[in-house]
């Protein structure tokens, strides 16, 4: 199966035939070695939604150090399939971020962007994706103010 990998702010985004999207992020929190966070993604409009994923210890030794990971990421093409991404929305910890730069999209602008993709999901769900995202963004921003 053909697949293509991209670098999105430290995430390895993998797109396979059929547009299936997965992601990996490797970190080295302590002497236990590299921890691999893995998950799935979906493109909706100009937004890449990536789930919170799960933790796996890297048993296959794909990378031996953070330096090796960083070098690998630097050699991957940059993710340019969407302008924005959201990570971990189902856990309620989410911000709409720009893919190109490490910057959170201003809340009012984020709502406008998410409304553009809303109509695609209303027919399939009682509650639209954009409404759910807006609720989670509101909750998250309110928590940050406290």
Architecture overview:
This protein has 146 residues and is α+β, with helices and mostly antiparallel strands. It has one domain (3-145). 29% of the residues lie in helices and 29% in strands. It has 3 helices and 8 strands, in the order E-E-E-E-E-E-H-E-E-H-H. It has helices at residues 66-75, 107-122, 129-145; strands spanning 3-8, 11-16, 21-27, 35-44, 47-50, 54-57, 84-87, 97-98. Strands 1, 2, 3, 4, 5, 6, 7 and 8 form an 8-stranded mixed beta sheet that branches. Strand 1 and strand 2 form a beta hairpin. Helix 2 (107-122) runs antiparallel to helix 3. It is globular. 23% of the residues are buried. The model has no long low-confidence stretch (mean pLDDT 77).
Strand content: 25-35%
Quantity of strands, as a count: 8
Which sheet architecture does the biggest sheet show? 8 strands, mixed
Q: How helical, in percent, are the residues?
A: 25-40%
| Number of helical elements | 3
Give the domain tally. 1
Low-confidence stretches: none
Q: Terminal Cα separation, in Å?
A: 48 Å
Shape: globular
Mean pLDDT across every amino acid position: 77
SSE class: alpha+beta
Radius of gyration (Å) = 16 Å
Order of helices and strands: EEEEEEHEEHH
Essential attributes:
single chain; 146 residues; alpha+beta; eight-stranded mixed beta sheet
